[in-house]
TrEMBL record, chains A, B:
It catalyses: O-phospho-L-serine + 2-oxoglutarate = 3-phosphooxypyruvate + L-glutamate; 4-(phosphooxy)-L-threonine + 2-oxoglutarate = (R)-3-hydroxy-2-oxo-4-phosphooxybutanoate + L-glutamate. Pyridoxal 5'-phosphate binds at W104, T154, D178, Q201, N243, T244. Residues 4-354 form the Aminotransferase class V domain. It holds the Pfam family Aminotran_5. NCBIfam families: PRK05355.1, serC_1. Belongs to the class-V pyridoxal-phosphate-dependent aminotransferase family. SerC subfamily. Pathway: Cofactor biosynthesis; pyridoxine 5'-phosphate biosynthesis; pyridoxine 5'-phosphate from D-erythrose 4-phosphate: step 3/5; Amino-acid biosynthesis; L-serine biosynthesis; L-serine from 3-phospho-D-glycerate: step 2/3. Keywords: Amino-acid biosynthesis, Aminotransferase, Cytoplasm, Pyridoxal phosphate, Pyridoxine biosynthesis, Serine biosynthesis, Transferase. The modification N6-(pyridoxal phosphate)lysine is found at K202. One of its GO terms (biological process) is L-serine biosynthetic process. Its EC number is 2.6.1.52. This is Phosphoserine aminotransferase. The keyword Cytoplasm applies.
């Protein structure tokens, strides 16, 4: 049977070991006689799963003690409203600064306008979202309520290669970061950010779980219209158990965190991700048959959009890729072409198989 | 090995057949080479799972064609805000009527006050929430924005045995129903309600999925502050795919729906649930060792709170129950005592085992 490699942008490939353990434990978790899905979230069994998941994530990202880790629902699109609803209560008239780097930050800008005054401090629109605007070109607002960036644009395939310093230009505004599609793929210094959030369905686990890492002094500033179930302070005060959390998704995320630790943690994953991305980009840069349009120093290690120069071959490319076990390579409809998402759980062998297939396809159709 | 019966109030027991199928399909769903967790929500494979789940739920509840079935996130507590945010845009000054029947409707009342004027049209507080106030005693508001009821109170163990008529007293206000903890356990006429919602983690599937069934003409009346990701009209227009849905939870829910159909559907489940509840309540009424305090015609078929007359025996009761494979019987902290939740997936044998244990425990400690 052909080995399957799944390049979906999310929900995305999970480590096989994690799925095997989940299957083995499905009917009876650790001799409890229950599936994790059947456990009361307030029982000792699930509490141990929740505590381990939070602690392992804290270890993996070296989250400082003055940051809370919250497990939420609603995904990145939900968080686009939940972030301003949680931060705008203190100074509702203050301006929210955004850096517009692609599809996801664009959605965040649109949604935030419901809850405050919005200023786009820099935009890569003129480049067709193939660059990250350099920090020097950002036109930040003094006394901004906060500054929002998306450090990896899943659809456009651009990624921040730096942690921006914004304090001097904003009088110390909090930096809010959507890390949905590259969290845990590279080392970060959490203390350089103030709020980090992300949907789980790329590098963490199943869709339906959202992670937020929030500096404690930013809790308690919600707008009056913020639903209790999405109020970070209420969620933090209740250990992410104010409403019933997505227990099974948290369990799978916990298994992924354990798997990451066995792989050597985020530093080791980053080295693997650099090697995987290099293999694919080097090939793309070596051929005229395919093309990646992102500026080299803004390229994402996670999401690699590319185009066949002859787009009339797209359908046959996708069909032959699928026949070779290379799944979900179709690009996002707003960009077109192809996209290979090569998250943590994608092994080097998957990228090698993709490049080999692309070479052979190019040879046959040149 | 002792057979395990899990009486958790939620997340709760699931049909063993469903868990077995989920385990078997975990690494490779229907020859796709992917786990359901790894599938793009927009791919053909997951779309077929989503479509089947929606269609099966529509069949099971005979949902009329002018109602949309929405798959959401945020649970019942989330919906306490999401309901008024979706319904109050048309007439923000109108009054929301509530029937206060216990813990859950109490939480709904508190949260709704953020979004509109609230009137408690009837309350069972004086009885300690052991009754459902008869319809004749409701003091409804003419031209109410909507009327909110919770037809099964998970914590207090009371359940509506009737579908209230409210049109005449309210000039046709919509009737909104929280059915979280008894949906699919008894036959209902959906057309007698206007919005039905519920968290999945009792009779449907894993925590993290919320179901809403909304009459179509009620879509599009959201408040400006309603987050897009929780705006029913946007969710309906996007087939519950505006943001990435909780795909694995939807898959499990779909397997539960298929299981329900194999059991003979809701009508057959209702007969089983009547028999299970009768066995337990009949025993409780026959003994002085235990007590259920709910008025007989308001008793829930799903959640049966009970007390040992000698509460000093609580700890040993729970320990011995667990040793006999009877799990998660501790009552909610706000009520105390014990609680047996006997949802669809609890077989008659589980209730028989519970009653036998209770009889033996009473004999030994009388």
């Amino acid at each position: 049977m052909t080995t399957i490699y799944n390049f979906s942008a999310g929900p995305a490939v999970l480590p096989k070991e994690v799925l095997q353990q989940a299957a083995a434990e499905m009917l009876d978790w650790h001799g409890s006689g229950m599936s994790v899905m059947e456990m009361s979230h307030r029982g000792a069994e699930f509490m141990s799963i929740m505590d381990a998941a939070q602690k392992d994530l804290r270890d993996l990202l070296a989250v400082p003690a003055n940051y809370q880790i919250l497990f939420l629902q609603g995904g990145g699109l939900g968080e686009n409203a939940i972030v301003p609803m949680n931060l705008m209560g203190k100074r509702p008239e203050a301006t929210i600064d955004f850096i517009h780097t692609g599809s996801w930050s664009g959605k965040s800008i649109k949604e935030a306008q419901k809850y405050g005054k919005v200023h786009v401090a820099a935009s890569a629109a003129a480049s067709g979202f193939t660059t990250i605007p350099p920090r020097a070109e950002w036109n930040l607002t003094p006394d901004a309520a906060y500054v929002h960036i998306c450090t990896n644009e899943t659809i456009d395939g651009v990624e921040f290669q730096f942690a921006p310093e914004i304090a001097a230009d904003t009088n110390g505004a909090p930096l809010v970061v959507d890390m949905s599609s590259h969290i845990l793929s590279r080392q970060i210094d959490v203390s350089k950010y103030d709020v980090i959030f992300g949907g789980a369905q790329k590098n963490i686990g199943p869709a339906g779980l959202t992670i937020a890492i929030v500096r404690e002094d930013l809790l308690g500033h919600s707008l009056p219209v913020c639903p209790s179930a999405f109020d970070w302070k209420i969620i933090a005060d209740n250990g992410s158990m104010y409403n019933t959390p997505p227990t099974y998704a948290i369990y799978i995320a916990g298994l992924v965190f354990q798997w990451l630790k066995r792989q050597g943690g985020v530093a080791a994953m980053e080295q693997k991700n650099i090697a995987k991305a290099k293999l694919l980009y080097d090939y793309l840069d070596s051929t005229d048959f395919y093309e990646n349009r992102v500026e080299k120093n803004s390229r994402s290690r996670m999401n690699v959009p590319f185009f066949l120069k002859d787009e009339s071959l797209n359908t046959v490319f996708l069909a032959e890729a699928k026949a070779n076990g290379l799944l979900q390579l179709k690009g996002h409809k707003s960009v077109g072409g192809m996209r290979a998402s090569i998250y943590n759980a994608m092994p080097m062998e998957g990228v090698q198989a993709l490049v080999s297939f692309m070479q052979e396809f190019a040879r046959q159709h040149s």
